[in-house]
Amino acid sequence: MSVFDGLRFRKVYSPIHNLDPRIKFVYVIAIFIVAILFSQIIPLAILFLMQIPFVLLAHVQKQWLRSLRGAAFLATFIFLVNVATVYFTSGYTITAEAVENAVSLTLRFVVLVESFSVFFLTTSPDHLGLALEESKVPYEFAFAFTTAVRFVPVLAEEAQTIMDAQKARGLELEKGNLLKRIRNYVPVLIPLIVSAIRRSLELAEAMESRAWGATKRRSNLYALKLHRGDFVLLAITAGILAVTIYIHFFVPIPNITQFL
Amino acid sequence: MIETENVHYSYPNKVEALKGVSLTIQNGEFVAIMGQNGAGKSTFVKHFNGLLKPSKGTVCINGVETTKSSVASLARNVGFVFQNPDHQLFSETVEEEIGFALKNFGFKPEVIDERVTWALNLLSLTQYRKTSPFLLSGGERKRVALASVLAWDPQTLILDEPTIGQDHEQKEKLRQFILQLQTQKKTVVTVTHDVEFVAECNPRVVLMKEGKIVADGEGKKILTDPEILEMSSIVLPQIAQVFTKLSALGLPKDVIDIYEAKDILMKAKESRRRL
User: Fold this and answer.
1) Which residue in A155, A169, A198, A201 has the most chain B C-beta atoms within 10 A of its own C-beta, making it the best mutation to test that interface?
2) Which of A44, B45, B197, B228 has the CB geometry, 3.0–4.6 Å to A107, for a possible disulfide?
3) Contacts of B147 in chain A (CB under 8 A)
4) Which of B49, B66, B71 best probes binding to A when mutated, by most A CB atoms within 10 angstroms?
5) Is some CB atom of chain A closer than 8 A to the CB atom of B87?
6) Which residues does chain B have within 8 Å of residue A191's beta carbon, measured at their own beta carbons?
7) Do A162 and B87 lie within an 8 Å CB cutoff?
């Protein structure tokens, strides 16, 4: 569950936590676009390092590192697939360029994970729902989204209980070959799905009995307002995009291998 | 026999749930573990079949340390019935559900069939043999969960909150059933908040608070001691409450059994008439 840990919000107060979720989301999307635009190591490495001040300001280093560790498996996989593809398609030889290319694609993935992790670690599900609502997303969808986010830890805990219950009946999850191991999870998945459906029906009844959806126009306890910090982040985002576009079109980026 | 020695346990999130628990349960004993929410009761009993391993201290089942064997091999001797049956039901029919553990333990098909029939009969579920467990009522699902553990006839049975959501008749059946297991020298450990149920059964009571055992002894003694119970936010059984209020009349305070209560009151009435 380490990947989920890296995305789970914990209530702390920091300049980053207080930022408007909409602006933070714009920032994450900007980083996303920049990461897609470049495929060389140097700009991607800069992009990677640029997130670190945010992480330190928000005091979420530990969880952030955990999410990176969670992504390590997939990152390794991406690297190996890229190297292997070149190796098998170019007549069983490996070049420095191929390795560099694989490293930069892996780095791009890490940058994406990293920036989303910062976003989810510093934005409470409530704020997120509020941001969706104020961005004119229908309340039903915003609510469904925040509920789904909020129920992830509950489901993870429930999965653990179910695994315990089945282990107590002699189920050995780690036994057998790959196919057998996948089949071992059936006694865990079925109760998990059944209880999730049952829970959602109960939740719907509880919500309806508290007059959910009674009025078209809802009022909110909190309202989102832009503060100075938000404008600073917006300016930084615009700056990053401007510099990126300039470099992308007018500055040739050297490969590391050219220096070797 | 279950022996735990100075067991400490901390969850991965650093919450220390057990802070040095030592307890010995002999074969054939009936023990109720009580205490407020978060006292560490469930964490403690999960050590008995190896679902949790102590961070410090030792847990031995029949002389073997749980750290040296797998949950599957420990479960063969220690059956654990979870609180919520929906956390384990997954098969298409009740029959398959009950046979699941037997298959895992490698019983022969004809033995499985025999055991399933026996367990269905024991918990009056025979008519549901081919029914989907998901179509049964809450109480029936709870009985299927119990049957699915009893089917392999473990020496020790752990019941986590067995009385929740059960009507009086089912509770009475459960009590009779535990008594029946006692005559077969089976060990029964139950985690419960149901004071009245414990009063009716009068087992050995182990009281936990904040990861430690605060009282251990005969049910009749512990459930009539207001000071000990208040510490664990448990109320006295109703009969004990009445007798505490009547203690000014010179009646004993440690009464939890309804028949004993009736005898004492009848005697008191007789002796008054004689005066």
Assistant:
1) A169
2) A44
3) none
4) B71
5) yes
6) 86-90
7) yes
Domain ranges of chain B: 1-77+156-226, 88-153, 237-275
Q: What is the 3-state secondary structure (H, E, C) of B205-218?
A: EEEEECCEEEEEEE
ipTM: 0.87
Considering the four listed CATH numbers 3.40.50.300, 3.30.450.30, 3.90.660.10, 3.30.499.10, the one that applies to the domain covering B1-77+156-226 is: 3.40.50.300
pLDDT at A3: 46
Between these two residues, B84 and A1, which has the higher pLDDT value?
B84
pLDDT at A163: 93
CA-based end-to-end distance of chain A: 41
* Blockwise average pLDDT, block size 10, chain A, 260 residues: 54 81 91 89 90 87 85 90 87 82 91 88 83 84 85 87 93 85 90 92 92 81 84 92 88 75
Provide the 3-class DSSP secondary structure of residue B223. Answer: coil
Tens digit of pLDDT for each residue in B16-31?
999 999 999 999 999 9
